[in-house]
Amino acid sequence: MGGRVKARHGVFLLLGLCCALTTGPVQAFDEAASSRISQVARRKLARTAEEVPVGQYPKSSRPDGTWLLVPADNMIGWTQGFFPGELWLMYDQSGEPDWRTRAETWTRPLEVQQDNVQTHDLGFKFLPSYGLAYRLTDDDYYRQVLLRAAGSLATRYNPQVGIISCCDWNPDWHLPLVIDTMMNLELLLWASRNGGQPGWRDMAITHALRTQADLVRPDGSTYHVVDYDPDTGARRFRGTYQGYSDTSTWARGHAWSLYGFTLLYRYTRDPRMLETAQRVTDYYLGRLPEDAVPNWDLDAPTPQKDSSAAAIIASALLELSNYVPDADKKVAYWNAALRMLDSLSSPAYLDTADTSPGLLLHGVGNFPAGQEVDVSLVYGDYYFLEAVRRFQRQTRPPLPSDWYSRLDFAAATHTLGGGNTGVLVAEFDVTPLDQPLDAVIGYADSATSVTAFSQLSMLIRMNTSGFFDVRNGAAYAATHPVPYESLSTYHVRMVTDLGAGQYSVWVTPPGGAEILLADRFAFRTGAPPIDDLGQVVLESGAVDEEYRVSGHTVSGVWSSQPGFAAGTRALGGGNTGVLVAEFDVTPRTRPLDGVIGYADSSALVTSRAALALSLRLSPAGVFDAYDGTRYAATNAVPYEANATYHVRIVADLPAGRYSIWLEPPSGPEVLLADRFAFRAGAPLTDDLGQLTLKSTTAGEFQISGHTLGPAPGARPAE
Question: Which residues form the signal peptide (predicted)?
Fold first, then answer.
């Protein structure tokens, strides 16, 4: 299956590039670049974990090549969560236990911050550390600390003005609101979903709307801070603290606004949040220099790049591109993010020579105060790695042809056409746009008027526990649980036998191997009769557009038969010269003695002797192929029951030779047969007109997606 998935993604990327031509050239950032960044991060983060004492947290690089450190119990400091966050991202990317150990080692000392009521920055401290820890381990200890921290943050809410007060340390401010707080609101939103007070969500929304009204200018530029009278709510001051002037736009503050309104939309689906996110994005993109990395303040005459702002915005734009309704803007935002990542991963910004302990050079902390100017910043590194991880999980932009889930059943239903009968395979990519969901992808007969879940025979669900499962008769179940994450793309393959009333489902996570989710599950109990696969329904659980489906296809599945006549299918005339045949094969048992063979259209296929080309699933549990007078294999490839293998055959009919490549579910393509000779004594083969699937008993293996076509100029083993 791996080859098919890779080919499909390549087609999507090509389509995305074509669409992007209307919005500017596509940049060079790709999966190879993301892998290279991960390797640099592995080396630097492992070294930092060795050199920095536990309970101390990197903040910014110093001239001597070491980190400036902040202790776990510094209540005013805001950056302690980012180093453990980087470690969790490395564990998420690699799955290696050592990274989890490191991440837990630097996460748990931050427990001391859970009762901190002196600052608004608890989101920065806890979401990269405890938030990622809970998502990746499901350990309830982390959830409980997050809830307590959210409660501490909520104590800073002023109901008179409707904001979270940022801080108490500046005697010149009475009730200050800074744009940075938009990032900390996620702690309240997450907690309200996960066992905390429902009112915390309202606090976050009210604060965001006040930020929109008082810190976002009509043209999309932003102020940094506004100070209120705590009794009347009147504005005392509006301007900047870390920017160039009260009328300028401080780059990192603007990044917090763009990211913050995007995450508010993720949690609320409030159109006001999306409109604001787009407004600040469009202003920012219109002010970018050629390398897509901004000056520390968009209006400052003093030139000094800030890589941290670019990293924050790149990560946010990869998410925002999924939400905007306009197809051109989806691609434009995606391409802008890749432009930023392309620059940040270049030698100009990515430190591969270890001149700094951090990843990104040229970050700016507080330029007016002369603090942390032209340095590595731990938060810049964190959001850079987050952006790279987001790209790795979703490597193409949304496309105009994508389908989105809907609450209304009529709007959620897509017609698949008639004639989809017998044994079928449906394939598609699904991208959840939120988490957790309670959403279903279901199938029904073309004659059914779908108005309820009970009318769907086959249902694939993303459940509230964060896992895929499948309807099996009267209940949902999973042969092997598969977790899902928002903004990650999963490939789904469903094989359904309409006659038997059973279906199986496989899911391929990003960068992983295909997993059997449902093994011959029964159609939903009580669903209407289904004679064809005529409709697919993308049903949301709470709001529209909770997930996206791409590249949905339905094709026939052919099963092996015990008789040669029953197992033979006509492929049509004209299949001459040098040909390429491709398909997926799934053995349903192991071992077996099955053959996939090709014969001339005029041959009478009553035995294997009539097959000029033969691929065998042998009794020894390996694939082999017939070479003249015997079965052989250039490279042995074992097979397993219920695993799917992609097969590519190049046959040179005039030369009487053929080559076969096999791609296992989780490995690269392997050459199985290198210019093997057609079977000695087989009938003269001028065309490939017949395909035979022969086994000892019916249904011991299946093939799907069979294609056959000419390959002009190709050689069987080039």
Answer: 1-28
